[in-house]
Amino acid sequence: MKTIRDFRAQEMQITPATIAGTLKKTLNDRASWNEDRWNNYVTQSEASSAVSGSHVVVGWNDFETLWYANSITNWAVSHDGGKTFAANLGLPVDSIVTETWGDPAVAVAPDGTFYIATLAQVTQAAVNYSGVVLYRSTDNGDTFNWVQGYYAVDTADFYDKELIAVDPVSGTVYVTWTWFNNASPLYTIFSWTRTAGGSSSTSIVAQNDTGLQGSIPAVDRSGNVYVAYESWDGGGVPSIKIKKSATSGASWDTERNVATLSGTLGEALHPEASAFCGRNALKGNIRVNEFPSLAIDTRASGAGAGNLYVAFNASNSFSSGGCPSWGCIDVFLTRSIDGGTTWSAPLKANARKAGDLSDKFMPWVAVNGKGKVGLLYYDKAKTPYVAGASNDNWFMSANVRRFSPSLTLIDSTKLGKEFPTVTNHDWTSACYMGDYNSITNNKSKNDDIFYAAWGDNRYGDPDIQFSKIVPVLP
Questions:
Q1: Domain limits of the chain?
Q2: Among 36, 291, 391, 456, which residue has the least CB neighbours within 10 Å?
Q3: What is the CA radius of gyration of the chain?
Q4: pTM (2 decimals)?
């Protein structure tokens, strides 16, 4: 069987060029980079964030910086808790990591070290390979340099959808991704473990010939590692699965089922939009998946400490309100109180009134320092006519809901005004709004605050917006 290859950086710091000034909510700098150059055919998407103390790092796909710096993966940093941000010109590349390819995943260690994992083009002996690379910052996110990566042994193979987690106690880094192999087995989810001291190892989490994608790792206070992912059986039925490792990723326990997307739940898709986009898509031509988001309450004590939470979207054919035969898309939450062995029945986490044919999708879940569960998701609905709007007046908004550890709704808020869908214009990928957004907590404070970052079309194409979500005290 083929294996993957490991490579490491020399001990040197690479400082990228930065744009002077600060940004308030829109993190990518539209003015300096002249996004009208291609009639707004430029997308920023897939926000990922981490917070430690007053330092906030947000990464995203940036197809503008591909032209400036051969780097799709970009980031911004704040040192005042998210009040102002300094934008950058993409993660640095060199003769080995010759391009970054996006899918950023940001995390922070207990000592304040920030990490960004990204897809990349890795060049060895003048041959380009698909790879996953880990960047590190030891100056609170101002600069990043790559420290290690893995690349495929065959130029026909492809790595995709890497995400990251850091042990909240030891600082060990875990990265998972999908290897699309040109030989059998076709689908493999890899796990990469890197200790704070730099030692590294990999293992196979799951493998099959029918379909695996969208893996996400998380680590509890005891060092147990969990990886959730979407899997398809031989009949094409998708489900959300999870595996656990009590050996720092060296071996993995039995696969557990979180939710099966059949019967009352199904794949999130609209038939006509899916045919138009050439893949599963929602009304308004936005491509969609059912990839899970996974979060763990890593507090040492308190109600819900140690709980695992998974969020996903699915077509709910039995939603009230007269949804069509393919269903309306809803967001679901489920929890485990026994270390991932069993899971509660999926809870529809969004509201839906009678006659509401909207779609709620692309959820991300986090747990803050008070044990509250934060859920970020898109809501795409019909709105009254707005001059210049397209896509049959489908408008979107980013929304946050907070839940107790038992998944009882506490409150909800909309993050700004509705914005148009604006899809199928980007040269990078038709019907593209990314595959995930981000909500997180401050890893060095036990406070009640969440931080959200998401793709937002208010200026005509997806930009990255940021919001600090502070509860209103009675």
A1: 1-155
A2: 36
A3: 21
A4: 0.91
